[in-house]
Amino acid sequence: MKTRILTALLILACVIPPLLYGGWLIFLLISFIIIAGGIELLGLTEHKGAWPIVIKPLAILCVFILTFGNQKLSVSLLGVFALVFLSIPVFTDAFHAKDGFLCITYITFFYMIATSFLDIYQLDPLYVWLIIVATYVCDTAAYFCGRFLGSHKLNVRISPKKTWEGAIGGWLFGAMLSFAFAYFLIPNMGLTHMLLASLVLPFTGQIGDLSFSAIKRCFQIKDFSDLLPGHGGVLDRVDSLVFNFICFDFILVVLSL
Known about the structure:
This protein is mainly alpha-helical. The protein contains nine helices and two strands. The chain has a two-stranded antiparallel ribbon with strand order 1-2. Helix 4 runs antiparallel to helix 5 (97-123), helix 5 (97-123) crosses helix 6 and helix 6 (125-149) packs across helix 8 (191-219). The radius of gyration is 19 Å and the shape is globular.
């Protein structure tokens, strides 16, 4: 527990300054997640150590180009990058077709995560804090509601410890506190945006958690890595959060139509 708490404090010390001050600190934070998350996700391949040495750096570079390059070219470039990774198995037996799909998944998913985060942060940094509140209040409340009230299993196949009581309690607390946060601290946010975000994000965050648990079950691993002692890997910490960045960005786009 001591290790877990110390790691959590270190994570906060690394995350809070970029969110408060922006600029190059935000670039460093996004870069760390792209690189560390990429190493973890691409490490799921069944052919560890067999890939040509340039594959992982190339996939990570693709995400940086899509995220920080010319956005008018992003869709076309994404298509070109997909073709490149689908073509690599033609030239080497060390990189299989399903490895190509793994790389394409990483590039596409992390490009969407980074772009969604930047879009939201540039609109209003407080939106990022709203997403964090909705995500982690729900996560914490779900843990305690499940611990003290839980008796009906939610999905034994994916996460044996989670219960319906925990999920519902997490959603209720996440919805109430995220709405309160938006109502009192984000004055320029419309009531429709507040209601939709506070109702949706605690739910999609839990789906994100379960989805990444399903990935770990599929590949028979406990954590994506041991980078963060007591917490697993980067993907173990941001699973719910990345779902919510993409979903909140979608909410903003839809309500602006």
